[in-house]
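TA notes, week 10

Several of you asked for a full example with nothing omitted. So below is the full record: structure tokens for the whole chain, then the designed sequence directly under it. When grading your own attempts, check the secondary structure regions first.
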């Protein structure tokens, strides 16, 4: 596999490291507007290659990324303490638009990581002109993993035994789908001793997780790096996994005309089939409210 990463800040470097550590990539191409930074990261990572499977790591120009199977966009600034992801929009939309314009007619997958990831995925899609299935945002993939971890701790079971999606915006309006969650094949709400009053508490814990990390260390980078590496492993391995990613929606759950996270089957051709999530009435209303937040944010770019 040949994968490119654009943006060598903390997130881009963590994505690159995770790709190497998980053995996802044979050729790893790094790009940054600061060419010296990309060269430095490439050298540093290349020196670790003897401990891993044979991998070539080098800094490249943007034009050299056309031969990649996938390109990850991690370019843009990070969030600040007490700043919402949507507050990043104006600063990072121009970056996403420029990159998308330079990757028109690209043949592989584009994966947006930079926040606000949902709106920037839409900006990237529109600027690149690629088919919607091939332009993905990491969306609520990490939020869903955080929720499985949180529920696992709550119930005393391994997170891998928890099946649950966080949907909607990767941000403050995200929706935790408790009504369809299950643990080892048992519906969460039928789990012995489950208290539904805990649901909003746990949802808030997951929703605020990134802010807690940013307050302490300035950025979230390692977990999203791992999440992105696994997303690419599953996609480029054509595993047809059902995961929550942000992509252009065309009617599922009554949502269309924007990028937002819903469960989708992901393989080498991208997120090819979006699934209808099983939601109760309150969750569906919350999902539509989340979509409205993102539509308003997208419209602000045109004003």
């Amino acid at each position: 596999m040949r994968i490119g990463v654009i943006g060598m800040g903390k997130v881009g470097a963590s994505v690159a490291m995770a790709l190497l550590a998980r053995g996802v990539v044979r050729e790893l191409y790094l790009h940054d507007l600061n060419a010296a930074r990309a060269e430095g990261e490439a050298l540093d990572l290349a020196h670790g290659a003897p401990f891993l499977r044979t991998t070539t790591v080098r800094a490249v120009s943007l034009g050299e990324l056309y031969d990649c199977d996938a390109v990850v966009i991690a370019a843009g600034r990070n969030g600040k303490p007490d700043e919402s992801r949507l507050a990043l929009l104006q600063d990072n939309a121009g970056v996403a638009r420029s990159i998308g314009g330079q990757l028109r007619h690209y043949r592989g997958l584009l994966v947006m990581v930079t926040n606000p990831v949902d709106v920037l995925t839409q900006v990237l899609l529109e600027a690149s002109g690629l088919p919607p299935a091939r332009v993905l945002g990491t969306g609520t993939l990490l939020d869903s993993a955080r929720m499985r971890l949180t529920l696992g701790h709550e119930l005393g079971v391994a997170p891998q035994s928890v099946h649950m999606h966080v949907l909607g915006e990767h941000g403050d309006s995200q929706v935790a789908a408790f009504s369809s969650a299950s643990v080892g094949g048992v519906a969460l709400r039928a789990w012995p001793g489950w208290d539904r009053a805990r649901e909003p508490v746990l949802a808030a814990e997951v929703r605020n997780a990134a802010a807690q990390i940013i307050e302490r260390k300035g950025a979230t980078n390692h977990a999203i790096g791992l999440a992105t590496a696994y997303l690419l492993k599953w996609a480029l391995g054509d595993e047809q996994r059902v995961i929550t990613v942000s992509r252009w929606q065309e009617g599922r759950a009554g949502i269309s005309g924007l990028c937002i996270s819903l469960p989708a089957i992901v393989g080498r051709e991208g997120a090819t089939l979006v699934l209808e999530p099983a939601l109760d009435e309150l969750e569906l209303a919350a999902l539509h409210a989340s979509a409205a937040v993102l539509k308003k944010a997208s419209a602000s770019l045109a004003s």
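Residues 281-302 form the longest helix (22 residues). Use that as a sanity check on your answer.
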